[in-house]
Amino acid sequence: LELETRMRRALAQDEFVVYYQPKVSADADTIVGAEALIRWMDPERGMVSPGEFIPVAEESGQIEAIGNWVLLHSCLQNKAWQEAGLTPIKVSVNVSARQFHSRALLDSVVQVLEQTGLDPKWLELEITESMLMNDVDTAVRKMKALRDLGIGLSIDDFGTGYSSLSYLGRFPITTLKIDRAFIADVDTNPKTAEIARAIIGLSRGLNLEVVAEGAEIEAHISFLRDNGCDTVQGFYYSRPVAAGEFEKMMRQKV
Ligand code: G
Ligand code: G
Ligand code: MN
Ligand code: NA
């Protein structure tokens, strides 16, 4: 079967799963958040990577249904963790370009918040710079409407897009997420280290939370901690894991 057809069946037959990757506070070493990342357990082909099927879903329009599914399930899960008495965390959900530009996004978020009863401050959407640049005014209006709901907004893969820094002050965002390309050689390349320091400084100056992604080794962690990065995500702490395993990590702190 075509990927598109299999995806339609996957949604109906519950073959999608949300995995969670911890975001850790750089100074306290505690889990303060998670990125929700979709996984597809195809009964015939095993695990299919979102890098493979998200672009197809985006093309075919299925991304709206899949995106709403991820949003609902990660908010239900987060609410369940809170009701189980765990320290509240913020869950970040990736939004694709087509979802961001859809008229239905705002209503979908409102509906999920109502349906789950999750306090909006525990939800954040991750968007990329490239989604915002075609029509900056419209994007800013959409971001403001989302922020008015009380949720957070993060710029994902920051530093790799083509947005002008002059727009950064106009975007009503709460978080900058430094792309992992900058983190990878922060301990070996002095120029990369300087760029990472500048992004951290910029975020602090603009009162934004700054998250580093792709921290894989102790040297990345110590660099980020020493340079005032708030939050760190990466294989050093954990790969994305199923909800049950994530809950175990939260109970053990990291
Ligand atoms: O988790 P992994 O590294 O395999 O993710 C690959 C890509 O798929 C990343 O760019 C990630 O942002 C994207 N992705 C993962 N889950 C989702 C999702 O729920 N929605 C969207 N739009 N993209 C996702
Ligand atoms: O594009 P986006 O930033 O949403 O992609 C998120 C993906 O990045 C996650 O699904 C995860 O698989 C991947 N990722 C997370 N931490 C690391 C890391 O430490 N190293 C590498 N290479 N990839 C990571
Ligand atoms: Mn992301
Ligand atoms: Na990213």
Helix and strand topology:
Blueprint: H1 3-12, E1 16-25, E2 31-42, E3 46-48, H2 50-60, H3 63-83, E4 90-94, H4 97-101, H5 105-116, E5 123-128, H6 136-148, E6 152-158, H7 165-168, E7 175-178, H8 180-184, H9 190-205, E8 209-213, H10 218-226, E9 231-233, H11 243-251
Helix pairs in contact: 3-5
Sodium ion (NA) binds next to β6.
Protein name: Signal transduction protein
Domain EAL: 1-254
Explain the overall architecture.
With 254 residues, the chain is of the alpha/beta class. It has a single domain (3-251), classed as Alpha-Beta Barrel (TIM Barrel). Helices cover 45% and strands 22% of the residues. The chain contains eleven helices and nine strands. It has an eight-stranded mixed β-barrel with strand order 1-2-4-5-6-7-8-9, surrounded by five helices. Strand 6 (152-158), helix 7 (165-168) and strand 7 form a beta-alpha-beta unit. The longest helix has 21 residues, at 63-83. The protein is globular, with a radius of gyration of 18 Å. The protein binds guanosine-5'-monophosphate (G) (2 copies), manganese (II) ion and sodium ion. Sodium ion binds at residues 156-157, 177, 179, 213.
CATH class: Alpha Beta
Please state how the strands of the largest beta sheet are arranged side by side: 1-2-4-5-6-7-8-9
Dominant shape = globular
Number of structurally distinct domains = 1
**What is the CATH architecture descriptor?**
Alpha-Beta Barrel
For the record, give the distance between the C-alpha atoms at the N and C termini, rounded to a whole number. 41 Å
Strand and helix order: HEEEHHEHHEHEHEHHEHEH
CATH superfamily: EAL domain
Distinct helical segment count: 11
What structural class results from the helix and strand content? alpha/beta
Mean pLDDT: 95
Strand % is 15-25%
CATH overall fold name: TIM Barrel
Helix share, percent? 40-55%
How many β-strands, per DSSP?
9
Low-confidence spans: none
- What is bound: which ligands? guanosine-5'-monophosphate, manganese (II) ion, sodium ion
| Rg (C-alpha, Å) | 18 Å
Largest sheet: 8 strands, mixed, barrel
